[in-house]
Amino acid sequence: MWHAVLQARRAGDAGTIARAVARRAGHAAAFGLVGAILMLGGAATQARTRPHLPEDATAVEIGPTAKPVAAWTDFCNRMPAECTVDLAEPATIPLNAALWRTLTSVNRRVNARIKPITDQAHWGVIDRWDYPDDGFGDCEDYQLLKRRMLVERGLPRRALRMTVVIDDIGEGHAVLMVRTDRGDFILDNKTNTVLSWRSTGYAYIKREGQDGSRWVSLDGGASPVTTANR
């Protein structure tokens, strides 16, 4: 383009020079428009791939000490290392994009991997807490596996609390509560979406305490008979 301008300048052709400069300006504008489109496209792609962090939640209200679930006590007797909590670990963890990706990924993967089965059909007892390493389990087994996977990814066990609730159909149910600096969030085998505890619609009964042995009551609830098989 500038070769044409130089030729016109040598010939003294003002009109040719003007047309050449105008074409050059047009090309520059076009390139600028393309660049802007590419920048917008890149920003949109980045927005699509960036995880959407939830609004700040609240921490569930803690009540007095509660009796642990009997099947939890049995689980801890069989696997004491899985119930040992390092009190030097933080009780809550910072909720950032990396943590949110980890929580949603683990929740979704375990929900897809494990096939639901009642404890009675699986183990021959009404309620047993265990790892679903054979690919089958009920609600608490899903959550125990998620807890183990999150610990393997570097999360402190002290911030991952096994929790008993009354679910949307009025039955006992177990979920995993993740305690963060932006509130308490729930991993659940009933949904792949990680929700704040208030958004689940559940009544919260009790959960592990922060020392790994005692449990605490939650939100004024009374304990259900079992932790359900769903």
UniProtKB/TrEMBL annotation:
Cited Pfam families: Peptidase_C93 (PF06035)
InterPro entries: Transglutaminase-like_Cys_pept
Gene3D superfamilies, alphabetized: 3.10.620.30
PANTHER family assigned to the protein according to its UniProt record, in alphabetical order: BLR5470 PROTEIN, PTHR39327
Protein name, UniProt field: Transglutaminase-like cysteine peptidase
Phylogenetic lineage: Bacteria, Pseudomonadati, Pseudomonadota, Alphaproteobacteria, Hyphomicrobiales
